[in-house]
Amino acid sequence: MKILVIGSGGREHAMVWKLAQSEKVKHIWVAPGNGGTADEEKTENLPLTADPSTEEGQQALLEFVQAEKIDLTVVGPEAPLAAGIVDKFREAKLAIIGPDKKAARLEASKVYSKSFMEKYGVRAAKSKSFTDPVKALAYAEDNFKKKPKLVIKADGLAAGKGVVIAENFAEAKDCLSSFMKSGSLGDAGKSVVLEEFLQGKEVSILAAVSVKPGKKGVIKPFISARDHKRRFEGAQGPNTGGMGAIAPVPDFSSACEKDFIDSILAPTLKGMEKEKMDYRGFIFFGLMVHEGKCSLLEYNVRLGDPETQAVLPLMDSDLVLLCRVILDNTLADFLLKWKKEFCCAPVLVAKGYPGAYPKGNPIAINPTGIGRSGARLFIAGAQRGQGGPLGSGLRTAGGRVLAISANGASADEAWEKAYEALRFVDFEGMAYRKDIGREDG
């Protein structure tokens, strides 16, 4: 098989690494890929002439797939999905993993997503949507007379910057002004969802989805994972795209899993079928778990990042075969197998992240040390340069530079291996959290 993977982050690196393990794979192109995907077995990067979320970019990729006779395309990030790349490829009779544009609204529009949850009885935080900044401000002011916090969500895609937890009315006022009046997020923030703040611990559930109009659908969940979003130890500081992840989550019990399936997964599947979505791909359920009950915070219509870097190293099934049964609507019969291990994946970030950060710093990697630790690197914001230390040639190109994923027989062993491996990577300004997977993280 020939495969095209669209994307350039750590998630895509992990997907490419896992796909390449299949004996059915002959060659993988990654558009545009990064400094890590460039070195994976059977893999080469494909430079992009235009953004895949634009008509021009999608047409270029479609023509490449047709010319190279690519057997399968897998979309990593959300923007091309929201822009309808799946619809375009399927109209051309090309095999592609992802939801159609209609289904992608579950992530692309928080307003639509919340209305979907309410319509189909998905347990979620109470919320209200606004397009009028005056009315939104009045609602926020009233909230703080009764409750200490308020979650503000931009309606559209905002590259991880569209959710703010306001600790007081002044913060809420500043956020609403920035989103709705100043246009700091462009059109994405012109409409907002104001949502109650839920107590508990966050859990991420990635899942395979095979829903096609007129046929019985299936959502098959993966093992649980947990992202650590705050920048500093003890869950302090600003939200980020993710400072690290673990899988599975030790405190996510079988009773919690059953509650998730009954209260969130099952009604979501019912809604997808009722809405006649063509959703053949992956989904991310962002959960808040409190006293054994799960509430849905958000859908993502693709695999999570950095959760994928912790989940895929534990998958004992062929990812290519999983993609095929998703497309063939035979997912119900597919047995997902998992290693009886744990994975810890701390993320190394550039100095200043999630604010402004430098680029182009050489990354020193000791592959012998990494190998001894039993860990592996998933590159995110790094590209191949010239003359990197120790022959790596990698240079920083983003805020989240790479993840170090390590498996262990216990959560503690996985943590120890990951942080042992971390000693063998270095770049100027390198920073990370020391408590990924720890109780207070």
UniProtKB/TrEMBL annotation:
UniProt KW keywords:
ATP-binding, Ligase, Manganese, Metal-binding, Nucleotide-binding, Purine biosynthesis
Source taxon at top rank: Bacteria
The residues covered by the ATP-grasp domain are 114-328
Listed cofactors: Mg(2+); Mn(2+)
Q: Which reaction does it catalyse?
A: 5-phospho-beta-D-ribosylamine + glycine + ATP = N(1)-(5-phospho-beta-D-ribosyl)glycinamide + ADP + phosphate + H(+)
**EC number(s) per entry:** 6.3.4.13
Known pathway: Purine metabolism; IMP biosynthesis via de novo pathway; N(1)-(5-phospho-D-ribosyl)glycinamide from 5-phospho-alpha-D-ribose 1-diphosphate: step 2/2
Q: Which InterPro entries match?
A: ATP-grasp (IPR011761), ATP_grasp_subdomain_1 (IPR013815), PreATP-grasp_dom_sf (IPR016185), PRibGlycinamid_synth_ATP-grasp (IPR020561), PRibGlycinamide_synth (IPR000115), PRibGlycinamide_synth_C-dom (IPR020560), PRibGlycinamide_synth_C_sf (IPR037123), PRibGlycinamide_synth_CS (IPR020559)
Query: Mind listing the GO molecular function terms for this protein?
Result: ATP binding; metal ion binding; phosphoribosylamine-glycine ligase activity
A biological process (GO) of this protein is: 'de novo' IMP biosynthetic process
Under HAMAP family, the record lists:
GARS
Name of the protein this chain belongs to: Phosphoribosylamine--glycine ligase
Q: Which organism is it from?
A: Leadbettera azotonutricia (strain ATCC BAA-888 / DSM 13862 / ZAS-9) (Treponema azotonutricium)
